[in-house]
Amino acid sequence: MNCTHPFLDADGDKLREECGVFGVINATDASAATALGLHALQHRGQEAAGIIAWDGVEFRARRGLGHVAENFSSSEAIAELPGHMAAGHVRYSTTGGAGLRNVQPLYADLASGGFAVAHNGNISNAGVLREELVQRGAIFQSTSDTEVIIHLVATSRYPTIVDRLIDALRLLEGAYALIVMTPEGMIACRDPLGIRPLVMGKIGDATAFASESVAFDVVGAEMVREVEPGELIRVDFDGNVDSLHPFGNHSPRPCIFEHVYFSRPDSFFAGRSVYEARKSIGVELARENPVEADLVVPVPDSGVPAAIGYAQEAGIPFELGIIRSHYVGRTFIQPSDGARHAGVKRKHNANRSLVEGKRIVLIDDSIVRGTTSMQIVEMMRDAGAKEVHFRVASPPTAHSCFYGVDTPERSKLLAARMDVEPMREFIKADSLAFVSIDGLYRAVGEKPRVKSCPQFCDACFTGDYPTSLTDLSRREDKQKQLALPVDKVA
């Protein structure tokens, strides 16, 4: 199911975030609070937004393509969603593709009553489950992996909605953070490894859930705690809160890229300030990969905290040698290949008076395809930089993500095709270095990576996937079968 970076370049040379979810129960203006919460999570998904509210009699939904402000900024829009319980979603599609029919929350009338679900993550065996459900007579209305959850709940033979949801979730592989609404109340749950984030807060007598703590800041809520990996929290209309752990004990594997890039820097993730973690990554990067230079320059905005940490540790001045335009539209017209290639200059411009004649350390959060990095290095040289040294606040991204992050196929990832020196030559930098995986772990407050049982999901760096990837395995098996040679008849 999932979400996009607001200034993704034309070549897709940036990892696109997973979606954002927000829900609140026992609030006077539940849909208004949900709209505000989604606005704070807008960075997690800019393709579409949706809210469903329960007024005690029926569920009412409003969904639309585009930003939260485009769909929920008017009093008339909020008035369409009365009630004391609401849940919302901002998305970029990883599974299912674009289109209004895939905009969440999804809703269905089940035998037990209405059922609405907002999902952040990606079900890595959704294809197999979908085929089985269709063979049993299920009729799908969307192409989203989230709808598989609804059908599994609908066909479960357990008596209560909570037990039916648990029964459904036991069949899933992959990552999910869910907010579910029924006529009985709200349910929030997180996959057994806690790959995708989910936090719980309080607004007076109301209980809220969100993908990031920053959403609570906006609505005036107090963060209570993270929803634990594998935990299911049920809240009813009397304010009773029950916590269940139906999936046994597992070693958590939260996504480490939340610290690197996805979460807003003013959020907390895995018990740590994201901003402080990113500064610490810069410190580790400076210790591991020093270089003589005159200025440390971030690639804005995501490279800023790491660049501050690098500059402080290295004793090199931090300067805004690149200025970013905040007014590049999502649908900017690109009439030719030349204009598309120049996309980086619409978003970033060299601050020539600072960089001319200087030795520059450029700090960015990651390198995906490498085209944007190459263009930024070229831009620095065109502005007169004497040397351009590129430092990356994450290890090389050499593997695709199957847990709700829209990464290019592996063959298009620069680090999957090249070692560091060829990558340096490709982006035309004077030097190139990445923070080590152990340095990244230290920066986020952990001991060095435990190979036998890693503390985070870091599969995009290591290829060590924490769950089975059934749909991927089936696709690969089919490709191998198609590639088998055909014996010629003599």
Automatic annotation (TrEMBL):
Keyword Magnesium: yes
Protein name: Amidophosphoribosyltransferase
Gene Ontology MF terms: 4 iron, 4 sulfur cluster binding; amidophosphoribosyltransferase activity; magnesium ion binding
Active-site positions on this chain: 19
Pfam families, A to Z: GATase_7, Pribosyltran
Organism encoding this protein: Qipengyuania aquimaris
Coiled-coil segments: none
CDD domains in alphabetical order: GPATase_N, PRTases_typeI
Keyword annotations from UniProtKB, A to Z: 4Fe-4S, Glutamine amidotransferase, Glycosyltransferase, Iron, Iron-sulfur, Magnesium, Metal-binding, Purine biosynthesis, Transferase
Pathway recorded for this protein: Purine metabolism; IMP biosynthesis via de novo pathway; N(1)-(5-phospho-D-ribosyl)glycinamide from 5-phospho-alpha-D-ribose 1-diphosphate: step 1/2
Biological process according to GO: 'de novo' IMP biosynthetic process; purine nucleobase biosynthetic process
Catalytic activity line of the entry: 5-phospho-beta-D-ribosylamine + L-glutamate + diphosphate = 5-phospho-alpha-D-ribose 1-diphosphate + L-glutamine + H2O
Domain Glutamine amidotransferase type-2: 19-238
Residues that, per the record, bind [4Fe-4S] cluster: 255, 401, 457, 460
